Amino acid sequence: MRGKRTASTLVAAVLFCLCAAAAAAPQKEGTAAVTWQRDKVPVFIDCDPGIDDTFALALAKKSPALQVLGIGAVQGNVGLGRTGANALSIASYIGLGCPVALGATYPLQGVPMGAAYAHGSDGMGGVALPTPDRTFDRRPAWKLLYDTAKACGGQLQVIAIGPLTNIAKALELYPDLKDMLAGITVMGGSPTGLGNMTPSAEFNAFNDPWAMEAVLESGVDITVIGYDVTSQAVVQGDELEAMIGDSRIPLLLNGMRRTFVGEESDSKILNDVLAVMALTDPQVLTIEQGSLRCLTGRADRGTTVLTDDGSPVRYAVGLDREKMLDVLRRMCADYQK
């Protein structure tokens, strides 16, 4: 690893202090609904943490343009037992006071397909966060999403950075939901056919292509940030080293970097941050419009294709990496305050 400081030492020291404080704090049962501040864009984040999900949640928390009103967890990078626990721990740790709810354990069809090879068996690269200050919301993620959308009067934006099972279930169970959403930004698919599960299929789409297709065809205003663009969201080790400081967020960043970069590689692709930046910093991305379908056959599972007969969506075709890095630098600087 090219980093000059010892990440494991920093992780151990910070964890000792924070775990002691967390142990003394009472744990709340769930979290009451957060009052929407009307000068911010209300968002619901559906995720499967996951390393890049963690960066995305941290970025959303620090954005002056967004207010996170709810978080749903779905199986994906690892099983729901871990992604749910991770989402709750991250939200508590970085100060997101919104409800966190558990969602789907399985895709709409078949069995889960995890990515522990990329995120570790716990999804967090072995980084242990303090005990959360609250428990899960009692509602399933799709009901929390529906209730949050209803309270926002058509203004809610969904940022979906895991498999789309929770979102598809919500749209099926509550047919009026599609008229309550201002939009859904999806990290998933790959309109030009660059995959990371098969040569043409991206992980989230491959995990639950039936959910991906249902969301694409829902009639909601959809923006797709596909792997063909997010694969360019590479942060080098020395760039990350220059961003971090002695604050809360480096416990996550340093610990994950210690696990996943250094000896084998000195870089990480942060796919999910681009779904947040699509709302907060749209100049980072180049967007076009077209029709997109997600295929569900045995041979073409999870492949997303541009077509003439699908619902119109916006999709990313380019990334300004330097602008992306500027946004991440500002985020890390904010966590040092």
TrEMBL record:
<keyword id="KW-0326">Glycosidase</keyword>
<keyword id="KW-0378">Hydrolase</keyword>
<keyword id="KW-0732">Signal</keyword>
<dbReference type="GO" id="GO:0006152">
    <property type="term" value="P:purine nucleoside catabolic process"/>
</dbReference>
<dbReference type="Pfam" id="PF01156">
    <property type="entry name" value="IU_nuc_hydro"/>
</dbReference>
<feature type="domain" description="Inosine/uridine-preferring nucleoside hydrolase">
    <location>
        <begin position="43"/>
        <end position="325"/>
    </location>
</feature>
<dbReference type="InterPro" id="IPR023186">
    <property type="entry name" value="IUNH"/>
</dbReference>
<feature type="signal peptide">
    <location>
        <begin position="1"/>
        <end position="24"/>
    </location>
</feature>
<dbReference type="InterPro" id="IPR001910">
    <property type="entry name" value="Inosine/uridine_hydrolase_dom"/>
</dbReference>
<dbReference type="GO" id="GO:0008477">
    <property type="term" value="F:purine nucleosidase activity"/>
</dbReference>
<dbReference type="InterPro" id="IPR036452">
    <property type="entry name" value="Ribo_hydro-like"/>
</dbReference>
<protein>
    <submittedName>
        <fullName>Nucleoside hydrolase</fullName>
    </submittedName>
</protein>
<dbReference type="GO" id="GO:0005829">
    <property type="term" value="C:cytosol"/>
</dbReference>
